[in-house]
Amino acid sequence: MDKEEIEHIIDKAYPLIQRYYGKGKKSYPVIELHRDIYARLSGDPEQSGEHSSSSMAEYNEIANEIYIYYPNIKNEEELLKSLIHEYTHYLQDLTPLKIQVHAQNYEYDTDPHEIEAHKNERNWQMFSLK
């Protein structure tokens, strides 16, 4: 998928996701499209690294932003699942301390926050444009 297709789907589906799941304690997160996770974190547009080809999305609880790494999104399903997953993290009202505690006590696959986010991904077809 190209960047314009992704933007089109986000423009249509994101308001529906917000309406369906509701608003968290913070304002609705802004969605930003980025080429690469390492480029975003470093500020160097040419930067890349180990997870450059696999990172699809991320929620930043401090900035209250969802980042979509658009070159890694292959289809509408991946995009919608990523949006729902990260939006679920927004609703969980995670703090850096909560994230640290969970990282110390759970593996990714057993973390209740991740389990909930993956469960919600199953609803992706509700927001499909097809």
How is this structure best described in words?
This protein is mostly helical. The chain contains five helices and three strands. Strands 1-3-2 form a three-stranded mixed β-sheet. The longest helix is centred in the N-terminal third of the chain and has 19 residues, at 3-21.
Unreliable runs: none
SSE pattern, N- to C-terminal:
HEHEEHHH
Portion of residues in beta strands equals 5-15%
Q: Helix count, per DSSP?
A: 5
Q: Find the structural class using helix and strand composition.
A: mainly alpha
| Strand neighbour order, sheet with most strands | 1-3-2
Shape: globular
Q: Got a strand count?
A: 3
**Oligomeric status:** single chain
Instruction: Estimate the mean pLDDT confidence.
Output: 95
**Residue share in helix:** 40-55%
Give the radius of gyration.
14 Å
Alpha-carbon distance between the two ends: 15 Å
Biggest sheet features: 3 strands, mixed
